[in-house]
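Researcher: Re-running this chain for the archive, since the previous output was lost when a drive failed. Same request as before.
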Amino acid sequence: MSFLGDDFLLQTPTARYLYEKYAATQPILDYHNHLPPKDIAENRRFKDLFEIWLEGDHYKWRAMRANGVDERFCTGDAKPVEKFNAWAATVPRCLRNPLYHWTHLELRRHFGIDDFLNEKTAARVWTEANRQLQSDNLRTQGILGRFNVRALCTTDDPADSLEWHERIQASSLQTRVYPAFRPDRAFDVNAPGDFNAWTDRLGCAANVHISTLQHFMDALAKRHQDFHELGGRLSDHGLNHCFVDFCSESEAAAIFDRARAGRAASPQEQSQFASFLMLFFGHLDAEKGWTKQLHLGALRDVSSRAMKQYGRNMGYDSIGDWPQAESLGAYLNQLDSEHALPKTIVYNNNPADNYIFATMIGNFQSGATAGKMQFGSSWWFLDQKEGIEWQLNTLSNVGLLANFVGMLTDSRSFMSFPRHEYFRRVLCNLLGREMENGEIPDDEALVGGLVEDVCYRNAERFLGLSVPQPASP
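Model: Regenerated structure tokens:
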């Protein structure tokens, strides 16, 4: 069995058949990523392999640091080719790390480059990839077409302009691109300077003068509606754990007023304020039929030295170990009791909590919507072969795999669409092996239909996005 051959990750004939017939041909609906809508609107042409591949990839930065690479070659002022060469020298040390799989899968699928990346091949790979990047089919919109991306959802702050999404929708681009509502900065009453600057930006974006909590909520609701009018149907929250210190509107207003006056909220007050807003956001989502995404359990920006020197989101994060069950249950239960629980996808970053999350969603399923509550795809530190299998097995054991809405890239790179292929190969390998072992029926229609559903059709049905259909032959 050759590395990255046609049978990559497919260990049985049945697995290969399932992948080739039912998975490989499915389009992509990438409903959670961090791609810049500006790059899509402007159909960005990447100057070199650094820009498309290394510009903002904290996965690679972490591996390079672990290999003793100086920070200037990760996030610093080294030249693009120098950063690429530092990455190329690191790749051979990544053997058995998923980065080794992703690196070579992406080089093959985007550029047809079969070389193993290392110090000896770096110059050849750099030159050939940069040559191909000048073609239109490797500009951002060309990549979306090549990988048959029917629709994708970027992750957008409600205080940001939606002008790039408006330009995309006014263009002839076949891929639908929608904003997803990510209001995490609304909770930062513990840091009044940052909170007030963000609140002022929010007011400008919504054309609402914000001097009270009601004005603040009106501005958030206005932006939520703006996202909806552009076709957005998902929200997203990146939290340590769910906030469940529920308080009254008057208590939340007092916390808001103090923050606007420059007084930092205590940890308890911040939790109360965030709890109040999370219920408010739940109601907004439920009223419009949106899907709420909860990304829980990441311990972010652990190194204070790196945070001070380089800023946020530079790859100094890890898995957290907060108790999740009671807070997640309490949050979902409160929305449910108020008849305001939207469709929800819960993503877990700690494998120890897989069964907690997968069983918790079963408490709030609804007869009106199949799979209303979703145990989301393996995320961040878990989006590799083993983590994907853990998530699929957990969901299968205590829920319904057949209703799962499948994979996403969660990426900032246009090189990452082969992540869908990676997931589909893992899924087909699991099912094909069990068919051959007699653990599930040798029923092609049954299992093949499940593969198609999980790879694409469930997400299309569940999320309520307007997705273009292929032209009739």
